[in-house]
Amino acid sequence: MPETVPAAGLAAARASGRPRLARAAPLAVALLAAMALWVAPLVLDTFAVNVLTRSMIYAVLAVTVDLLWGFAGILTFGQAAFFGIGAYATAMLLSAQGGAPHWMAAAAALAVVAPLLLGLAVGWLSFYHRSTPLYASVISLVVPIVVTQGIYSGGERTGSSSGLVGFDVLPLEIEGFFRLAAILLVVVTLAAWILVRSDAGRLLVALRDNEARCAYLGLNPRRLQIGLTAVLAGVAGLAGFVFANASGVVAPENAGFLFGTELVIWVALGGRGTLVGPVLGTIAIDYLAANLSGDLPFLWQLLLGTAFVAIIILLPGGLAELARRAVSVLPLGRRAAAPRLAARPARAAPRNEAPLLSVEGLAKSYGSLTVLESIDLTVRAGELVSLVGPNGAGKTTLMRCLSDGTEPFRGSVAVAGTATAGLTPNRIVALGVGRKFQVASVFESLSVAECLRLARAAHEAPSPLRRADILGLPQPVLDILRMTGLDALMAEPARLLSHGQKQALELAMVMALEPRIILLDEPTAGLTKAERTTIGTVLKGLAADLGIAVVLVEHDLDFVREISSRIVVLHQGRLVLDGTVEEVVGSALVRTIYAGGAHA
C-alpha cells in the first residue's frame, strides 16, 4: 500500500463525510425531479403537457450542446442534424414496416447508430492534428445544411419539404410521452452531471482549457474529441426517436441550421458549462415562445428578444446564475475536497550505454530564415544537459522539434532508438518524453489536484463515475509540492496560483508522467532562490538516482553550474560547444558570444 502523506490527508479526513453527501445529492435531486415530472401531467392542461414534452426533448439536446461547448470548448451547430437523422430514421422505418415491437426496437437502435456513425465521420473531419476550433465550428455549420438538402432530395422516402406524418408510434397517451421525455431528460442530465464531476469528466475541461498540454501529458485530444462527438450524436439521435414518436410528424426544420443555432443560443442564455442552466433555459424559453406565439402572434418575437437582452445584461452567466445562487448552500454547490496524497515508488530508468536521445543533422527553417542548422546531440540515461545560448539562438525551437515529430524539420530525432518523425506529441510522450514549456502550461479551470490527476491519466485511467479520494504521485512530485507549498493548495484552482506556483505545478505534472527524458524550458522562472535550489536538488536526484535524462534550457548561469553534468551552447542556430561545466564556463568562445552583458 502506498504511504499516505499526513499533511495532505488531514483536510480530507476532516471532510470525509462531505464527498459521500456530495455524491448522493445529485441522485436525490434527480429522484425528486423525476417524481415531480411523473405527477405533473395530473395538474397541467393538455397544451402545457404537449409543449413541455417537446421542451424536455429539446433540453436533452441542450445538454449535449453544453457538454460539447460549455465543457469541452467545441462550439457546435450540428446537434440538430443528428437529432433530425434520428427522427427521420425512426419515421422512415416505421412508415415502411409498421410499429410492431421488434420494428420499434429496430427504429430506436437505428436512430442511435445512424447519427453516431455520422458523428464519427464529422469528428474525423473536424479534429486533426493542429486543427483549429473555428474549423470544427464551420464543419458543424455545414452538416445541418447537407442533411437538410438530403431530406429535400429524398422524395417520397423523406417526404421532401413536407416531412413525414402518419407513421406508427409507441402505444402511449399524451401523458405517457410526457413521462417518457421526462425520464430521458432526467437520465441524460444525471449521467452528464456524474460524468463532468468525475475524474474522467475533467478531461473535457482540460480539452477546453489547454489542448496542447493534454497532448503533452500523453493523452490523445483527437480521439477524445471524435469519441465525444460520436457519443453525443447518438444521444441526439435517441432524442430524435422520442420526438418522432411523441409528435407523430418530422420535418426538415428538425435537422436544420436554424434549429442548431437556437440550441446554441438557449445554452448560452441558460448558462453554458453548468448543465442545469441549459436545461432550465431551454424549457423556459421554448414554453414561453409557444405561449407568446399564440397570444401575441405579431409581438412575441420582439418580447422574447427583449427578454434575451435583459438576461444577458442582468445575468451574464445566464439563468444558471439563479440556480447557482440557489444551490450554493447545498453540498453539491461546494468545492470538492482535496484528495489525500500518497507516494508511489518511482520507476528507475534502465541504464545502458545506448543514448536515450539522439539528434543527427537537425535543421529547421521558416521560409528563408534558418533557425537551426546541423544539430548533432546525444543524451544518455542519468545525464543532466543544460542548453544555453543568447536569446534567438534556437533553444526553444530545438525543444519543440524534440517533442513534436510533426514539426517540419530536416535530419533525424530518435528516442531510445525509435525515430520520432511524424509522431504527434502524445505518441512521443508514450516513448518516455516529458516537456515543460517556457510559459507555464497548466489547466486554468482545474484545481491543482485535478491537474496532477490528469498528468497520471496515461498511467491510470480516471473513473467516469466518481472522484478518487487518494491521489498517488511519485516521490519527486511530492517533494516539489511540499517545497512550493502546493500540497496545501490541492483544491485551489490553478488560475489563482502565482506565476512561480504555476511553474512548479507544471514541473510536477511533467514529473508525474514518470518520463525517461525530461525537456525543461526554464523550470525555475519566477521562483525564489530557495525554491530554485530545491528544484535543482530534485533534478540532480532524478538524473543520479533514477537514471532520467534531463535536457534543460535555463537563463540562470549559477543554477546551470550547480546542477549540470554537461553544457551545450547554441549560437545563431548552430551547436558551437558541447562539454563539461568547466570546459564551457572557461571557454573563450563562450565569453565572446556573451560579451556585452548578454545572458545565457
TrEMBL record:
Family: Belongs to the ABC transporter superfamily.
Bilayer-crossing regions: 24-44, 103-127, 134-152, 177-196, 226-251, 263-285, 297-319
Species assigned in the record: Methylobacterium terricola
Membrane topology: Multi-pass membrane protein
Record-level Gene Ontology MF annotations: ATP binding; ATP hydrolysis activity; branched-chain amino acid transmembrane transporter activity
Cellular component terms per the entry's GO annotation: plasma membrane
All residue ranges annotated as the ABC transporter domain in the record: 357-597
InterPro entries: AAA+_ATPase, ABC_AA/LPS_Transport, ABC_transp_permease, ABC_transporter-like_ATP-bd, ABC_transporter-like_CS, LivM-like, P-loop_NTPase
PANTHER family: ABC TRANSPORTER ATP-BINDING PROTEIN, CONSERVED COMPONENT OF ABC TRANSPORTER FOR NATURAL AMINO ACIDS-RELATED
Descriptive protein name: ATP-binding cassette domain-containing protein
Lineage of producing organism: Bacteria, Pseudomonadati, Pseudomonadota, Alphaproteobacteria, Hyphomicrobiales
Gene3D superfamilies assigned to the protein according to its UniProt record, in alphabetical order: P-loop containing nucleotide triphosphate hydrolases
Keyword Nuclease: no
UniProt keywords, alphabetically: ATP-binding, Cell membrane, Membrane, Nucleotide-binding, Transmembrane, Transmembrane helix, Transport
UniProt-listed Pfam families: ABC_tran, BPD_transp_2
Subcellular location: Cell membrane
Top-rank lineage group of the source organism: Bacteria
